Amino acid sequence: MRIAAGVDVGSTQTKAVVMAENGGKTILARALVDTGANVRKAAENAFLAACHNAEIPATDVGFVVGTGYGRYNISFGNAQLTEISCHARGAHFVCPTTRTVIDMGGQDAKAISVGSDGQVLDFVMNDKCAAGTGRFLANAADVMGIGLDEIGPLSQRSTRPVRIATVCTVFVESDILSYLAQGKKGEDIMAGVHLAIAKRTLSLARRVSIEPDITMTGGVARNLGMVRALEQVLGTKMQVSPDAHFMGAIGAAVFALEKMDQSFESSTWRPEHAAGSGH
Amino acid sequence: MGDAKHTEYRGSIHQRQKELMLKWYERLNEAAETGTPPAISLMISGNCVELLEAFGAVPIYPEVNALQLAIRHQSLEPILAAEEIGYAPDNCAYVKADIGCYLKGITPTGSKLPKPDLVLCNFVGCNTYVKWFEHTAVLTNSKLYVLDVPFLREDNPSQADIDYVVRQLKELVSLLEQITGRQFDYDRFVEAVRCSAQVEDLWSQIKHLARRSPSPFDAYFDAITLMGPLYVYRGTPEGVEFFRAALEEMQAKVAIGQGVYDQEKFRLVIEGPPPYPYFRAFRDMFAKWKACTVASTYSTVGGLWEFGARHDPDHPFEAVALHMLAHNVTNRNYLQRYEQIRRYLEDWNADGLIIHFVKSCRLFSAGQGDMRDYVTKTLGIPTLYIESDLEDPRYFSEAQTRNRVDAFFEALEHSKLTAAV
Amino acid sequence: MLTFERTFEQCQELIADLSFERVHRWKEQHPGARVIGYFPVYAPVEIIHAAGMLPVGLNGGGDRLDIQYADARFGSFICSIIKTTLEMGLRDHLKVFDGILFSSICDSARNLCFVMKRNFPDLYIDFLHLPHNPSSTASVDFLASEYHRLIKELERIGGKPVTEAGLQQAIALYSCNRQLIRSLYTFRAQKPHLLRAWESYVLIRAGHFMPVEEHNSLLEESLKQLSQRSGKPRDSIRVVVEGAFCEQPPLDLIKLVEDAGCYVVDDDFVIGQSWFVEDVPVGGDPVFALADSYVNRAVYSSVRHDFRAPRWEGLAEKVKRSKANAVLFLIAKFCEPAYFDYVLFKKKLEELSVPHLLLEFEEKQFTFDRVRTEVETFVESLVFD
Fold first, then answer.
1. Taking the CA of residue B353 as centre, how many other CA atoms within 13 Å lie in the half-sphere pointing to its CB?
2. Residues of C in contact with B338 (CB under 8 A)
3. What are chain B's domains?
């Protein structure tokens, strides 16, 4: 049995997945930590936590692929791949009929056109503004004075979403305040915000052409209101796995298992790496 | 080695190119101090520099100034100065940087720039060119002449289009006689047109060398280095001499199979201007993957000669008109650019297209999403779309751009591997 | 008999109708006749009329159209009208059109023309090169030849042969139209309390969707009704609205400007419809007359270069003529020509000590609180001076 791992260092959270291959590939365990200021530490902690959850010693992991913006800060990584490649692979692993990935993360949003073996055919990213990202929804939640985990359920209670024209997170704040002042209901405002973001995200996604099955990945997939808004605008259902947030790490782990064959390198993890942990 | 520092072209003509550009700035300085030679502001794309040659006038190229500023990391200060007097964040940063220089009395090289004897706007598609020169004329209190070149809205220019431009060129001759106090030297004009034709031929041959594998130079990053002499010396014997030497040098590289990298792993076509404030860093992103650009649309702003067009010295006025109407990328319509890109992708044997969207330039960038749609869906060629600006340093995110570039090459590498299997 | 107020409502509905129902009806009533749409700002509508076709002014999708597909084709930093126009095409709103004309107003619009050509290959889409060197003696001849090219194309796609008589007739009708529009503006400048800016706006812009004969009747009737109107003048400041309009502001924004304490005594919202400062000469070669009028009798505009009379002088003149107290620059987000001209307009106004305010807008806006505050503050600063 061969064991490999993927570590996805995002701007807010770091995810690690340990995967085994024994005939077929299976996920052994996952772990999630806040990234914080020390990226290297976060990567180590996530990796060790995943090994712990998998009940295997870290030295059993034969290959580690790092992804996410902090991928070059993983001291024990054997290879680095962009999260675009990893999200495509991960989504394809979880749902092999995936042909389009819509990823909405904390800081960026992307759409990926995926081939039949999980390869990236085309992609488009929005990484220069908050539209379509977790941050946008977090700001909107702040303005309304409600928790981030409440905005999804709230939006789903709406029957008459308000019209939001802008997708600039600064301007939408004043739009929300304006509607509140007009006495509009919280759920209608939130639904309007979700709908505006859904339209904007799909507008972006259409650059790569949207083909079924559409798999949603990234942290925002946990917001059911967002999922429903996207499906409403798409006119079709999407695949949303409970592992949506781990898709990058999963894809990285899949790559790691494959690269393990091609490479003479084995994992550079040594127990000394743990010397810094526990602070 | 796969980085910009070690793979940038640094042959002997690189040195010669520097000398030529310095000499040009010296001429401008001389014009600023003594009033001679006459100095005329002109735009790069589709221009009539041969007419200036006929009067012994030196061209002032605000676009080259803007470029120099950005590459030397000096563009932000003048841009801010322009914004202070009312230019918008969304106005073309090339214009803002240039206007800002006037406002602050600075120049990219420290040498003086003369007050133009004439601000000559060759309106070839780019509407911003007109605004730019209107503002320049007002700021420097100089005379403005807008030479209106009909946009290439059909496959070829019509006789009415050509007649219109020729008539304006002749009006311009009278105006230049008035302004410079010099007689129009028709023979010198013909000679300049002849030199242009020779330079075009040499430049075209150089561009065609990039069809070889490996290409001896990068047709985007290295081409930009060669473009200076192309603009400033096109209608001159120095220009001919320079490009003759450049062609020889490139041919020598081809003879020994020397490419830009030790191994040419990817061949690209790039559309759009580069992010000048981050030129090196940008080049590095492609050097890392040993990706060599074999053709670029931006390097045809000065003129599109790869497909056979040449100035005809036997009909000099018509030749200049045709160049302005049809043989430069800015006056050609968007679909003609798609066609240009298609030819590059096919005939220069490229693996993919990079579309660099720049905020400032709508001529290049408005509609690049549709271009992308055409190239990926109709031509089936992998395309990467990245965004920043050509002059304003505030619109570039190195990490994010690098991420997109890496993702693109990861996929391209993967498809090359699987195709080989 | 319609109440006068109802007329404005109808016009408002007409200009917001993205299904172009009125235009469909015209086509049904004139079997075999063609419809030619034109993108802002100016088009030689007399020529289209003389070819037996209906010219229809296009102004994007306003606030009625969600952009689903056009965003993918045009990136960021591009004004909304470019995208909504393409979107209209991609969503089959332009089915009633047989052709669309563009002209050399700006880089984005020019690229849009050719993107649409690729996406709608069965539609006649053309680009008119309107001249930018009016001081050249060659300019009028060139434009006349460009107009002849247009005539040939219109005849090719099913237009009736264009004759001198047909052109003279069209010229007469459109000259009448421009006179009526001028009368409306004169009325408003003299009695702004009796004709609100948004009312005259919808009346004028309705002309984009109907034959000029009908529009002339509408305007004549409206002017008659106006002379019956009464009302109390308000204590508002007189402003000129300047914006190089191609993309149109939401109607609520126009209303808001006056609600916040202004009288809009002149504007360039749909300047293409009153493009000539003098009537097109009758008699002689009508194509030449139209070309000559474009070059030598046109209003100043941010989309036309003419240094014989710089645009800022034109603005100063407009302020003086309409006895305005201030200028309100209303510029569409990302509109390059407007933003460039603003710098020199502003310089001129500062020389003349004319107060001015710059506001940015988008055709799709639903909340206006910020804008309203800015206008009110501006008005207050002038009133309490």
1. 30
2. 118
3. 4-9+189-420 (3.40.50.11900), 26-186 (3.40.50.11890)
